[in-house]
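User: Quick sanity check before I run a bigger batch. Here is a single chain. Can you write out its predicted 3D structure?
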Amino acid sequence: MFSAALTAHVEAAYADDDTRDALCAPAPHPHSALDWIRFFSDTQERSKRWTADPALIDWLSTCRLMGRRLPQLSPEQRTALLPMLQAQQLKLAELPHQADVVTAVN
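Assistant: Done. Predicted structure follows.
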């Protein structure tokens, strides 16, 4: 239900298709261990995009379907959070490549 609410909000609040597509990127369901790593990497990318948009953060903080409440962050805190999310995403993106190397060696 949260995904539908987010999609409806983004459709109503944003006029630009590229912005709407970026904020509502698909999240394929994971089936394997490597899929989970990719899923979390995608989640980090989504978090980075959402965190960069103060209006979306405001909406998310009031959305009862979110499942958890977002902490109230100042613009400065959001700006400081973005590099950390990006660093985590880069680490997650590297894990499947490392797993491929281990699999090839074995």
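The chain has a mean pLDDT of 80.

User: Great, the batch can go ahead then.
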